[in-house]
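User: Hi! Is it possible to get a structure for several chains at once, not just one? Here's what I have:
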Amino acid sequence: MTEPGSDETRYDVRLTVNGAVHDLAVPARRLLSDALRHDLGLTGTHVGCEHGVCGACTVLLDGRPVRSCLIFAVSAPGCEITTVEGLARPDGSLGPVQQAFKECHGLQCGFCTPGFLTTVTAGLADNPSPTVEEAREMVGGNLCRCTGYQNIVAAVLRAAELT
Amino acid sequence: MKPAPFEFARPASLAEALEVLAANPDAKVLAGGQSLVPLLSMRLASPRMVVDINGISELAYVRSDDDGVHVGALARHADVESDADACRTQPLLCIALRQVAHQTVRNRGTTVGSIVHADAAAEMPAVLSLLGGRVTAVSSSGSRDVAAADLYVGPMESALRHDEIAVEAFFPAIAEQSGVAFDEVSRRRGDYALCGVAALVQLSGAQVVSVRAGYLAVCEVPTVVDLTAGVPDGSLAGRNLDDAADLALAALDPVTDIHATAAYRRQLVRALTRRVVAAAHQHGLARAGEGAR
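Assistant: Yes, the chains can be modeled jointly so their relative placement is included. Here is the combined structure:
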């Protein structure tokens, strides 16, 4: 990505994303979401509101879901970052949460889906058999404007069976 | 929507961070960033330098003792919320933390950061104020404790100097024979509250001897009101809860903003004061019952 003011200072940072180590030199203001998408080409992480409300950009930082639009890339050295690209099985087939969203029609346009998948993956690691209420709470910080959430909640419960 | 350019420092030690801050008057400290990064992205703030303290691992602690809970500047909300000792030592801290945004934000946001961000709509400043807690601020010229009562000087403005880092917040332990409760009303779960109330009820046997409540998102700074005069006979039965709510309304001057009118906030203050004070009373009675067994 070319910078409009090319004299902006760049900072070296080593990011570990889905197990792969990447050395980057980026401006301090580069959001982690933009570093993933533009610098590393991992466009599975989507950017919605870009101020921490919608949850579309959620990635796992050392296993915990966080908003990648609210972290600077230079603030994440030494962390294990998992994006939606890291949720598939090693053979490339869908991971259990992805499979459950597919089976339950837990997505329509799909824009918000990467954030749901990462959030639910971590949520089920914490709570492997959520109640319906806990499943709703788990995805309470993620906005979806298509589905009305019913099938997303169903997908969380289905994913708990598959995990 | 991207932040304006800034210089960046990621010191490995507190001493180094304080040196950088002392040398850069227009620097902002970055911990969890869950409030600061949106401000930068919307360009409501554009400091010349950002000093990232996430590399100073000695600040990532939650420690509880008989006096209370010590929360280091890098303890995430989620770390505090899941700390069993902290929740036992001061239950109000953990009850209120569950209402701070969503889990995903609490995973990164820090409790100390929220306190010194000084947002009157945030839970932690009101809780620290109600409990009479304090913040420890250090600079290259020394260290000082700032009582919660002296910390909030205006909307989004704390008493900290530019060269200081809030390294710890201290929440006093829950006293014997006392109860706490918290509740808030927001448009959607996890949104900023339109009105929130934390309450602390002190009992002596079955008698209520003191009632205090902390209010968030009502006035321009977190506000604590002593409601004890509403319970002259030491009982929360009958009209006394209404009287306590009246006292709260007399002391508060709710603001109108795009989220709620002042009149609606007054209604919320009344309803939540009654509900939360009653819940804190019940909590105190339940704790006294457990202690008696």
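Chain A touches chain B at residues 5, 8-9, 11, 27-29, 31, 34, 50-52, 55, 58, 61, 64-67, 69-72, 74-75, 119, 123, 137-138, 140-141 (CB under 8 Å). Strands of chain A lie at 10-17, 20-27, 58-61, 64-67, 80-82.

User: Great, thank you!
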